[in-house]
Amino acid sequence: MNRIQQKLKEDKKILSIYFTAGYPDLEDTVPIITALEQAGVDMIEIGLPFSDPLADGPTIQASSTAALRNGMRTDILFKQLKDVRKEVSIPLVIMGYFNPVLQYGVEAFCKKCEEIGIDGIILPDLPLDVYQEEYEAIFKAHGLLNIFLITPQTSDARIRQIDRGSNGFIYMVSSASTTGAKTGFGEEQNDYFKRIADMDLQNPQIVGFGISNAATFQQATSNAKGAIIGSAFIKMLSEKGTKGINSFVESIKTKI
User: Fold this and answer.
1) Mean pLDDT across 205-222
2) In what order do the strands lie in the sheet containing 92-95?
């Protein structure tokens, strides 16, 4: 069983942290991953920086720009991660855009992910039908879960189609906006979280976009299996560097 699937079976709310590989400094990738596991994070999303990140807000965009300037590339990330499983046991997911994966070669990319011990991939701009027709067999051959996104605007029929095509979790985008920390969720978003929960999908949902602290984490997970914190964590890294990781995670986990 894939590590993501094993983690989802645990009787707890899942705290996932997203960060951009190669930020703040090029060689920070693995130290951040190991520090996050030691701090008690349940899952990590490693952002593969891209020059045109359509779904990302200003904080993640700025970190991607900085990481690319630092020299981060797909092959560099794979070199950095080649021995990560000697130190880290929690699920690791690569999140990015399809263009760099296509440039690297989908088969070669998935093979590298399997060798390293990556458990899943999130590519927001890879449509479900294209994935199923052209790439699903490749992902499955290398033991990788492909995670799909839904938003408040996604129809019930489409959500059920994505649920049938998934075998890990569904990434539930909290709003139609780009990524970014928020102070709280309104009635419309809370109704959306409950609506999805009431659909009784076969795959658990993990909420992303807008989670920045313990309060928003609790709100997001009241009707979902877990939540992802990205922009707020990257902002902390820009201010405090890796030494601030433990206290940041502790501030979320003590309230869970």
Assistant:
1) 92
2) 145-147, 120-122, 92-95, 43-47, 14-20, 226-229, 205-208, 170-173, 149-150
pLDDT at 181: 46
Burial of 183 (0-12, 13-18, 19+ CB in 10 A): exposed
What are the sequence ranges of the domains in the chain?
Answer: 13-253
Q: What digits encode the pLDDT tens for the residues 226-236?
A: 999 999 999 99
Average pLDDT over residues 211-240: 94
CATH architecture of residue range(s) 13-253:
Alpha-Beta Barrel (3.20)
Query: pTM here?
Result: 0.93
Q: Where are the beta strands (DSSP E) in the chain?
A: 14-20, 43-47, 92-95, 120-122, 145-147, 149-150, 170-173, 205-208, 226-229
Cis peptide before 127 (omega within 30 of 0): no
Kindly tell me the burial class for residue 247, based on how many C-beta atoms sit within 10 Å of its own C-beta (0-12, 13-18, 19 or more): exposed
Known catalytic residues are 45, 56
